[in-house]
Specification:
The chain is an alpha+beta fold. It has 3 helices and 11 strands, in the order βαββββαβαβββββ.
Length: 170
């Protein structure tokens, strides 16, 4: 089943808490392949208060959270029964996925990266804290577009989770 983006209505001000709760449930119930991503769309704006300017993060859609998931009875139940969620956006209790045009207008890019590596391959990390580190791929998650590699850290094999775009096959 193909994953689609759905909009979940939450209590206002609870968006980040709902995201954290859904993320925790995904981890606890091992739903990583069914609920791929949870987002609270934000925008950085400059706010002036008492003569000082500072950058603050504003929610684009207060009271709403975006969920990229494969809709089935189990995932619907998990999201719908998360504390702070009032329901999915759609007629009645039937969630309606976002269209491709709506997804593009939100700035969510479709990921069509070709990967040329598999479990057991040796890769080099291209960016971040582990830049230029060499590791062996232990597991891959095509849905989340992530992989876990083993790297040598302080003389021990240490697992590190990275996105597909952060590594290159040697």
């Amino acid at each position: 089943m193909e994953a689609k983006w759905y909009v979940v209505h939450t209590y206002s001000g609870y968006e980040k808490k709902v995201k954290a709760n859904i993320d925790k449930t995904i981890e606890n119930r091992h739903l990583e392949d069914e609920i791929l991503e949870v987002r609270v769309p934000t925008l950085d704006v400059i706010e002036e208060k008492n003569g000082t300017r500072r950058q603050v993060e504003k929610k684009l859609f207060p009271g709403y959270v975006l969920v990229h998931m494969c809709m089935n009875d189990d995932t619907w139940f998990v999201v719908r029964n998360t504390r702070g969620v009032t329901g999915f956006v759609g007629p009645g209790s039937k969630p309606v996925p976002l269209t491709d045009d709506e997804i593009r207008s939100l700035g969510i890019k479709a990921q069509h990266q070709v990967i040329d590596f598999t479990v057991g391959d040796t890769v080099t990390v291209l960016s971040g804290a582990w830049k230029d580190t060499v590791g062996v791929i232990r597991t891959m998650n095509d849905g989340k577009r992530t992989l876990i590699i083993n790297v040598d850290f302080l003389g021990r094999e240490t697992p590190v989770e990275l996105s597909f775009s952060e590594v290159k096959k040697i």
